Amino acid sequence: MKLVEEVFVTEGLPNETFVKPPNYNEILIDVRRPGKPVVIEGQSGTGKTTTVRKIQASLNDGEAPVYLSARRPHDVERIVRIADHAELGSFIIDDFHRLTAALRATLADTAKLAAEEWDATKYPKLIIIGINEVGSALIQFVPDIAKRIGIHRVNPANEALTAELVKSGCDALNVVFDDPKLIFAESKGDYWLTQQLCQTACMAAGVLEESEELKKVAIDLNRIRKVVVEKLRAAYYPAVKEFCRGRRFRPSNDPYYKVLRVVAEAGEPVADLIALSNSNAEVRGSINNIKDYRLGALLESKELAGRYFFYERETTTFAIEDPAVFYFLRHLDWEALRTDCGFRGRDEVFEFDLAISFAGENRALAKHLADQLKELDVQVFYDENFESNYLGKTWSKEFTRIFGSASRYVVCLLDESHQQKIWPTFEREVFGPRVQKGEVIPVFLDDTPITGIPKDVVGIRFIDAHFSWRDESQDTWRDRAGNEIILKIIDKLD
Description:
The chain is α/β, with parallel strands linked by helices. Helix content is 47%, strand content 13%. Helix 2 packs across helix 3, helix 11 (255-266) packs across helix 13 (284-290) and helix 18 (363-375) packs across helix 22. The termini are far apart.
């Protein structure tokens, strides 16, 4: 007696309902050919891993490659040994894109050597699985490897393949769907989602196992979708909320929420954030806020979010890797999530939360503030961190934009040097009109009267004759800066 969960499989490898992709035979030949490196690429949910594992299971024990995943720390340790040629044999390396760039480059070199010599006594055979463009990325690491490696793309199922999957499951359970085309319309060829929708439809019709008599199953997409989304909510909502709230939650710190929402609504689980920024002006500021550092730091620091979301800073590739998570996001109530996260409404989107204005004599203090605020998930403009961004542009034009409108607040470190020097004076002229709006946070380092800053503007006094950030032998000022400046700035941001 066949059970519905054994026919329409949402966990593990399907038997009754496995559908070979059109290039299955080509992949099979390259996987079993000794020494030849293989790359399998394609977006999440296309059945890359299932296809390779099916091929693995079909081979004799002596020929079958060992399966390893970059998601498992113990496997990563072994992958490092393989890259160092400390282990020989045939290996499947899944989630290749999750390995460090250095390890990927080493594996690419190993694949090149294996492709050149095809000597199993010297080099391991590598079967690499990853998200879109992993094959191209591998070739970029080692340009002359292209002719000697098998690169295969596994695409989502088309309507015919989806129909084949659905029919094979229905035949196994002795049921018939009243409108099977609706399954493809909802799943868009995602293999996991197709299995999940079919399983849910059967359960809604009371089909839990193979039927003795042919039974008709109605496809009510609204009902099925509601059941699937609610089932996924308990598993994935905490990770989604953790991602949206960022490393350090603040009610105004919502760029992660905005970016995730636009990716989900765009309908593709893998996105180039630069391209997304260029085509979506309403989230351009949010993307620019997090793409250089903050997004990667979030996924490194938040284990739950890092489990389901991937970001590669070098290529600005953001991926929702689990097709179940992506389906959940496509049908999420985003306004309810925003409220649950605790975000407060704010119409304006700034490129920077803060911009620091300072004279060169106070660079050590400015850098310390920028570094500490960065660790608190604040997007700070500190000139040294953005020099490469503005190569070929004029500082006067960029500073006018940054201190005038692109930053939510300006933090100005005020003293005699700031009053007298040319660049700080220029910056004060730019952000001067914002003083009366409460958008400038003065930090007074001495009692020098500052042009453009009225004496009655409330600021932060950071004056003490017993220490100086200009003296490299002293460091007690760092703790005081945290307590007296940074905490107050964080309060102001919220």
